[in-house]
Amino acid sequence: MKKLLLLLPLTCALLATAATTLISRSGSGGTLTAPVAIGQKISISAVSLSGGGTAIMSCPITAFGAGTYQWNWKCAGGHLTVNGVVVASVSGTMKLACSGGGRFSRITCWHSFAGTATAGAVSGPVAITARGGSHNGPGTVTNFAATW
What we know:
single chain, mainly beta, nine-stranded antiparallel beta sheet, 1 helix
């Protein structure tokens, strides 16, 4: 009976640790698209992950606003999928900022997404950067990092 009483707290501690273990993935490549209508989805596709595999993300737009030099999105109720398996729900904000365009300078635009990935009781940050064309053209993902 004493052995059972000693094993029970140890087992509970191990299960609690396993339930709060965070998973992190990073990578680059793939494409980010950002429509401007509420209800459409911010999406990334075919991100190559370090260590192998791919990630995709889709997050419905809940708010959109455009200023002179920056566009802003909010999304919620999205999904992060790694190697074909949905691993977390996603929400966050994204900005598009452009610079250049002077007489001898090309316009360079960057999408920057910052959000949260939630899997059960565990959540962590999502950060995505993509270099795109002017006028909100699809961008190439230069940095992807997610923890859940």
